[in-house]
Design brief:
This protein is an alpha/beta fold and 547 residues long. It has a domain of 186 residues: FAD/NAD(P)-binding domain, CATH 3.50.50. It is 31% helix and 17% strand. The protein binds 3-acetylpyridine adenine dinucleotide (N01). The site of 3-acetylpyridine adenine dinucleotide has 27 residues, from helix 5.
């Protein structure tokens, strides 16, 4: 492919950073409004998270008919998902289809990493440069950079000494990896590892899982989709979409049952007897998927209710895993269930019954260092040929800090956010006029079905730009008081839940030195949408428009 020359002093109405689902829909939307836009994307293709995360077993934990765009009814009807939970290759194909169908590629510059984005007060424009030499300006800057796009390497001595093959889940080689005949070690037991472990175990000679903190996982109960069921579902797609967007279920829907919203058994778990709650949990376990947590509405609020969920999952683990010591090690005890992203698996716990899989408990025998031959634990060395790191991300703020973003008075965003992210509605930071963040910190984002949240933000931004154009306003800025109100509201909501007790990446707890601030908005996509709609209806309260 011929190298496209770098942009030199190119001017656009908007520059969008990132060509994942957020960047693609934003571009499509802006074009529809008659605006010019340039998208810069680091990868050589669209897809964002689904471009990079190609590790074995990678799939979405939201159901395929819900994890898809709703903005175009023909697209919705034409595209056929094959499984309840789509695989990474299928989702990437879908992203490519969207790019081609809406002719998006002509405005996307691939293999361009944005390194600076500076607001110029003298002309009210953003100047953006890339590492590859582009320099362009736009009235609006829109970040579509994802929440989990900066991989975190573990802080383990000797990582580079290892002489075997080393792979990172979120930067997986495109040609795939053949584990046949290999002794494989994997560090990490988050969502990525829990999806990868059963698949690697099937291929490898031996797999050793190095686990520091066990996670709760529920079965996906995945299956191929039945065309008659899909046809019936698609007949009422609008109704299902409405429920995803407005319901309590974080936009995931509950597609298998055709009730697009999970109806809790009771408002409060305490109202249920042990037998009733057990029956509800059993039913959700069999149904599969992350809405397991929604059997009752207070699973993330009440310690007692949450503890009953924990006991249920512990029982399931002990029933599934044959070796009692391995089963105990797999039972999470350090955090309430759901306070770290619950994992959705295909045969995860069953994998530990295989003869070729060993679980090492790093709480008992910590990693001392990586050696040339493998992993040195406090009780000896585990020799391996291949090391897989599934050690997570510098979530939510990491992608912003990878770019030198400066607002008014050349203030770096990194400086404004030194004690944690601050943004009005998770969309716009005071002091950074005309810059919008799709699924930024302070919005439901990672606690929701991302496609639902992306569409809501893109539509909101588009409406805000329309409002500005109608009044001939060229500058939109979040009001500082409104931002402060929103940030404290986000904290208050989180503090009413058990989330802050998870010690998770939601809080920045997985990154040394990162401030502990609960970053996503925990009240759900329905409540958040209502607030946004209300603010827009009040002539965009908290947003200042000027010429
Ligand atoms: O990362 P994680 P992930 N020594 O941060 C361990 C989304 N996602 O990539 O907990 C030993 O969850 C760490 O241990 P500990 C989803 O939102 C979605 O798996 O720090 N271990 C932990 O076990 C998810 O939540 C899908 O003690 C070390 C693991 O590495 C998010 O991405 C699929 C270590 C990191 O787990 C992140 O998931 C996959 C060390 N030094 C991911 N450092 C879908 O299905 C870290 N660890 C859509």
């Amino acid at each position: 492919m011929a190298q496209i020359p770098a942009d030199e002093n190119a001017r656009f109405d908007a520059i969008i950073i990132g060509a994942g689902f957020a960047g693609m829909y934003m571009l499509h939307k802006l074009r529809g409004m008659g605006l010019t836009a340039r998208v810069y994307e680091t990868a050589d293709n669209v897809g964002g998270t689904w471009y990079w995360n190609r590790y074995p077993g990678a799939r979405c934990d939201a159901e395929s008919l819900a994890y898809s765009f709703s903005f175009d009814e023909e697209l919705e009807q034409d595209w056929n998902w094959t499984e309840r939970y789509a695989t990474q290759p299928e989702i990437l194909k879908y992203a490519e289809h969207v790019a081609d169908r809406f002719d998006l590629r002509r405005d996307i510059r691939f293999e361009r990493r944005v390194d600076t984005a500076h607001y110029d007060e003298s002309n009210n424009r953003w100047r953006v440069t890339t590492e590859q030499g582009d320099s362009a300006s736009a009235q609006f800057l829109i970040t579509a950079i994802g929440c989990l796009s900066v991989p975190a390497l573990p802080d383990i001595e000797g990582l580079d000494d290892f002489k075997g093959h080393r792979y990172q889940a979120s930067l997986w080689p495109h040609e795939g990896v053949d584990f046949s005949g290999q002794r494989v070690g994997i560090i990490g037991t988050g969502s990525s590892a829990i999806q990868a472990i059963p698949v690697i175990a099937e291929q490898a000679d031996h797999l050793t899982v190095f686990q520091r903190t066990p996670n709760y996982s529920v079965p996906a109960q995945n299956f191929p989709l039945d065309q008659n069921w899909v046809d019936a579902f698609k007949k009422n797609y609008r109704g299902h979409r409405y429920n995803q967007k407005h319901g309590l279920n974080s936009g995931f829907g509950d597609l298998k049952t055709e009730i697009a919203e999970t109806v809790p058994l009771a408002e409060v778990g305490d109202d249920l007897s042990d037998a009733e709650i057990e029956a509800g949990l059993e039913e959700r376990w069999e149904r599969g998927g992350a809405y397991f947590m929604n059997v009752v509405s207070d699973s993330m609020m009440s310690e007692r209710t949450n503890a009953r969920f924990v006991a249920f999952v512990h029982k399931k683990i002990r029933e599934t895993v044959n070796d009692p010591e391995t089963a105990e090690w797999l039972c999470p005890t350090s955090h309430p269930i759901g306070t770290r992203r619950i994992c959705v698996d295909i045969g995860y716990y069953e994998t530990y019954n295989r003869d070729n899989v060993t679980l090492r408990n790093l709480r008992k025998t910590p990693i001392e260092r990586i050696t040339e031959r493998g992993v040195l634990l406090s009780d000896g060395e585990v020799e391996i040929d291949t090391l897989v790191l599934a050690t997570g991300f510098d979530a939510m703020t990491g992608p912003f800090f990878n770019i030198d973003i400066r607002g008014k008075n050349a203030q770096p965003l990194k400086e404004k956010w030194v004690e944690g992210p601050r943004a009005y509605l998770g969309l716009m930071a005071a002091g950074f006029p005309n810059m919008f963040m799709i699924t930024g910190p302070g919005s439901p984002s990672v606690l929701s079905n991302m496609l639902v949240s992306i569409e809501q933000h893109v539509d909101f931004i588009a409406d805000c730009l329309t409002r500005a154009a109608r009044e001939n306003a060229t500058k939109i800025e979040a009001n500082l008081d409104s931002e402060n109100w929103w940030v404290s509201h986000v904290n208050d909501v989180a503090n009413d839940t058990l989330y802050p007790r998870g010690g998770s990446w939601y809080l920045g707890a997985n990154i040394k030195g990162k401030p502990r601030v609960f970053m996503p908005y925990a009240a759900g996509v329905g409540a958040y949408r209502e607030i946004c709609d209300h603010i827009a209806a009040q002539d965009w309260r908290g947003f200042e428009f000027s010429a």
